[in-house]
Amino acid sequence: MNRNEFENALMSTIVEYISDQIVLRYMDACKQAAVLFSGALIGYADAVRSLKELKKDGWKLTVVMSKAADEVLTKERIQNDIGPDAIYVEGAPVNGRQIIDDNQFVIVPALTINTAAKVANCISDNLLTNMISRAMATGKPIVAAVDGCCPDNEVRAKIGFKVTDAYKMRMRSNLEALQSYGIHLTVDDNLFEKVNKVYAASFDFPSPDSDVKPAQVKNEKAAKPTCSGSAAAEAASIKLDKKVIGRVDIAKNARYKTIIVGADAVVTGLANDEAYNRGITIVRE
């Protein structure tokens, strides 16, 4: 590398670093989520762990509970287990529409069979279903954990879930409908990782078309919802033809497990940190 090439690479690195810092601060400032509890107990312990991790990661959480959730989980338990920034219960004065508009993200960590069926069939007849409908109408990202409403959940089978196969098939079709509406499905144990991936992908980063060739995207396949993990299969790898790889490049390609870069590419420290935090492997050619 001659002096001009070195100076250009250094300047690019500085610019990328400054850009990364600006994006990082903006994204951190937007970590605000409406957390909707509809009453499912299955997966609750994992949901608590995930939500606590989100709080440690800087997320501000506004919890809204349905009447059923308040009866099953109780407001006091949610307050003690999670310590949200605010908490509201259906029946008390609460402006669900305003809460959705004031937050950047929606999390449903205890989706019930009833709520899943209503949303799947476009029914908005209570506080939570109205809030989910409002979130979809305004384009807010929604992540829902299906532990409590998936017919194939192992815990549900152990407690004697003996409905017919036709009934289970309808429950699965409800989850497929939610996914087709753009709702991201996961399980409570994976909620923290899923929220952060969807959140990073929700930002309007510069189009990667100039950096990515269609032939370089491999093994990206859609999958039906399951109870064992994410609702969509993760893509395997992508190649970035850039001289400098910054944090933004990692964030906007967070759905890939492996990011391939050139042998002489400069990978910033923030990019390495972002890849590590997301479980992404950076491979040099």
Automatic annotation (TrEMBL):
One of its GO terms (molecular function) is catalytic activity. Residues 34-146 form the Flavoprotein domain. Gene3D superfamilies: Flavin prenyltransferase-like. It comes from the Bacteria. This is Flavoprotein. The lineage of its organism: Bacteria, Bacillati, Bacillota, Clostridia, Lachnospirales.
